[in-house]
Write a structure and sequence with these properties.
The chain has 8 helices and 7 strands. The longest helix has 47 residues, at 81-127. With 248 residues, it is α+β, with helices and mostly antiparallel strands.
Length: 248
């Protein structure tokens, strides 16, 4: 089949292992091929299911404390007072360093998982036959549509005089939190804008990153977290992000 070559590269694309030039060509093909679009959606759904399953059985803090107490008890029974103090001090240093390293590792992993989820949602939406639920280029039509569907409100920029076009929006769920997903277009490139309540993402650093062949911009504003993601240039992502920040 003509699409066999493309189907074999979908996993590479979704895992961010495809060169940028090839990724752009593949994404353009997915938008016009129902079979590859369906394959992309199936893979995205599988990835999200695996990610959720992996979060079910994380060791609890109580388990770690139990192990540490057990080790400390054995050390106390085996050594004298000086060695006890030295062992406890060393153990505290090790545990402290391990805790910091573990916390940083979990934060990095959580951040990478979040960016992967954003990329998956972006790809799955563009591959869908109905990428938006409200179709309009008018911000005064799109913004009111979300009222009653999500627990917050937001402002959208006036695009007149810019190269950006608003295509519409839909309700989405990011880390099981409801939010707004808006689609913009610039020079045949689609950009996803995700807006969700800040909540426990307050410690997530903002700024620009490149993930899975996409440029991403993120920031917090008025209790909301904004994510702008697309395969267009970083300058385009930053330009749209600035317009969103300045929207009134």
């Amino acid at each position: 089949m003509a699409c066999d070559a493309w189907q074999g590269r979908l996993d590479l694309y979704l895992d961010g292992e495809l060169p940028n030039a090839d990724a752009g060509t593949l994404l353009a093909h997915v938008r016009t091929c129902p079979a590859c679009a369906a394959g992309s959606v199936e893979r995205v759904q599988l990835k999200r299911a695996v990610q959720l399953a992996g979060k079910r059985f994380e060791p609890r803090a109580e388990f770690r404390n139990k192990i540490l107490k057990s080790v400390a008890a054995k050390q106390r029974a085996s050594f004298g007072l000086w060695w006890k103090l030295a062992t406890v001090a060393a153990l505290l240093l090790i545990v402290g360093a391990a805790a910091i390293y573990s916390l940083q590792g979990r934060e990095n992993t959580a951040r990478q998982n979040l960016y992967s989820e954003l990329a998956d949602l972006h790809v799955a939406t563009l591959a869908s036959t109905t990428p938006v639920d409200v179709i309009s280029t008018d911000r005064h039509t799109v913004k009111p549509w979300f009222q009653g569907k999500i627990p917050f409100t937001f402002n959208l920029p006036e695009l007149q005089g810019s190269d950006f076009t608003l295509l519409g929006g839909r309700v989405t769920y990011l880390e099981q939190t409801p939010g707004a997903h808006l689609i913009y277009q610039i020079r045949k490139h689609e950009i996803s804008v995700f807006i969700i309540p800040e909540h426990d993402m307050a410690n997530l650093p903002g700024g620009a990153v490149n993930k899975l062949s996409f440029n991403i911009e993120s920031w917090s504003q008025n209790g909301l977290r904004y994510f702008v993601i697309g395969d267009t240039s970083a300058n385009d992502i930053q330009a749209l992000s600035k317009m969103l920040r300045d929207a009134r």
